[in-house]
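Trying the structure run again after the queue cleared.
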Amino acid sequence: MKMNKCNIQTMRWVDGKFEMIDQRILPNKFEYIEYDSAESVAEAIRTMVVRGAPAIGCAAAFGIALEALKLNKERNSDYIKKFENAFKVLAESRPTAVNLYWALDKMQRLLNENISLSLEKISQKLLVEAIDIMEGDININKQMGAYGAELIKDGDTVLTHCNAGALATAGHGTALGVIRSAVQQGKKINVVADETRPFLQGARLTSWELIQDNIPVTLITDNMSGYLMSKGEINAIIVGTDRVAANGDVANKIGTYMVAVLAKRHNIPFYVACPISTIDLNCANGAAIPIEERESNEVTGFRENQWAAKGVKVRNPSFDVTPSELVTAIITEKGIIYKPNCINLTKIINS
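Done. C-alpha cells:
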C-alpha cells in the first residue's frame, strides 16, 4: 500500500459522509471508518482511532456537525438538550489536547449565533464550519512548515518523538510538516523516529508516513536517543504538542521531557511545532495542564500478546510536560517564537 506524496487524508467529508483513518491498525491495514454522531466521534477519540491535538480538534468539530445533521434528519424537537450532551461527551473524550476545546468553542459560538434559525439551516452552517476548520488546519500546517524549514539545514538528521505528522492533523503535519517542507525546499533530511511506547506512534505511524513520502527514516527504541546524541548523530529535534501553557511549558507525548533534557545536555536545538490554537493562555504553566492516564493494558501487552507479569501495578500517563527553558523555539503559522514566555506568546497570538 503506497499513498501519493503528502496526500494522507486523516479525515474526509465525501459524498455526505465523514470518515477517518483507523490509526489503531496502521501500518498493517489501511481503512477508513464512517461516523454519524457526536458520540461515535467521541468514542473514536477515546480509543485513538484518531489522535494528535489538531486532528482531535477537527474531529470534534465534525462530531458537532454530524449531531446536528442527525437531529435534523430525525426532526428532533429536543435538539437544544441533545446539543448540550453532544458538546459534553466530546469535551470529555480526552483531557490534555487543548485544540479539542478550541474547536468546540468555535462550534458553540456559531450555534449560539444561529440558534433562532431552523435546525436544517443550523446543521448546514455547522457542517460548513467543520469543513473550514479541517481545510484551515492543512493550510496552517503548510505555513508552519515553511517557517520551520528555515531552521533545518541541508544534510541534517532530525529526531522526532511520537507522531506529529499528517495523521496527527488534517494534513501535512506539525513536526513532520516542518520536515516535509524542508524536503520540498530541496534539502536532504534524515529522520530518526523513536518508537514511542506504549502506543508505538513513532514505530507504527511516523515511520509509515515518511516511507510514503520517500523521506529517509531510521527507527530506534525510546531508550536509544541519548546514545545517538552523545555520538553526534542528531542535529536537531522537532516534536509536536497537545498544549502550550502561558509561560511556554509544553505538554506532549510521554517521553518528550526526557528527550528535551538530553537535548539540553548535548547542546542540540529542541523545537516544538504547533498551531496558535494549541497555545492556552488561560493555563498559567505546565503544572496546570491535565495529564491523561490511560488503561494499564497498553503497557502490559498488546491484544492477546501479554509480556508483563500478571498482577503488576502499572502507571500509564499519556503525556509529560517540558519546561519552557528546555525549548529552543516554538514554530507556529505566524512565525517562530524564541524564548517562549507569556509576553512572547501573547505577542505572536495578537500579531
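The chain has two domains: 11-141, 145-349. Worth checking whether this holds up in the mutant runs.
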